[in-house]
Design a protein that fits this description.
Keywords: GTPase activation. With about 200 residues, this protein is mostly helical. The protein has one domain: Rho GTPase activation protein (Phosphatidylinositol 3-kinase, Chain A, Orthogonal Bundle), CATH 1.10.555.10.
């Protein structure tokens, strides 16, 4: 929990202490796709994860894995846009194949990393409720006026009330973004990622 707090604190752009990296959640029996979901974009995180039988949506896992394997060093990954037609095509492919055992089928047909990155951002932006609730954002905004102990206690208390999919998805996303930041070739530091992801996870 403390690692999540420190990572989000730097993500929002306020003072931070030493970050502790996250390991990606290990695959479990719950990660088997139930193949009963009928939609991916624009539905609640809890409903999507419940349908998939996973704490982290498979579209998030699949896109992050795809970028990690092929485009982690691509300059401007997550910052540069892609043609809207390509983004729409990939989104439609995910929707049409959402009951497939392996959503990676959508990422095997000449899809570039920037298009996949833009689809991930749109997925997060289209969630009915933001990944990080407003009450937590308020705590982070006021954190410069709080001691480290008070700040950590406030965020921990707020995050304890989160639904599991929100907590797990944030943990997974931050773990992945740390890997993005560690590759200097892509020129995406914490400030750049905060600018890109802030509007998609906070509202």
């Amino acid at each position: 929990m403390d690692a999540v707090i420190e990572n989000v604190r730097s993500f929002v752009g306020v003072r931070k202490s030493n970050q502790v990296g996250y390991r990606k959640p290990a695959a479990t029996a719950q990660n088997v796709r139930n193949k009963v979901v009928s939609k991916i974009f624009g539905i609640s995180l809890s409903d999507l994860c419940s349908s998939e039988g996973s704490d982290v949506p498979f579209i998030v896992r699949d896109i992050c894995t795809f970028i990690e394997a092929n485009y982690l060093q691509s300059e401007g990954i997550f910052r540069l846009s892609s043609p809207s037609a390509q983004i729409t095509k990939l989104k439609e492919a995910f929707e049409q194949n959402c009951n497939y055992q392996d959503l990676n089928v959508c990422l095997r047909s000449s899809v570039d990393g920037h298009t996949a990155a833009n689809v991930l951002k749109q997925f997060l932006r289209n969630l009915p409720q933001s990944l990080i609730p407003e009450e937590v954002l308020h705590i982070f905004r006021e954190s410069k006026c709080l001691s480290d102990e008070t700040f950590a206690a406030s965020v921990r208390s707020a995050m304890n009330g989160w639904q599991v999919p929100n907590r797990s998805t944030l943990q997974y996303l931050l773990s992945f973004l740390q890997q993005v930041m560690q590759n200097s070739h892509n020129r995406m530091n914490v400030t750049g990622l905060a600018v890109v992801f802030g509007p998609n996870v906070f509202r």
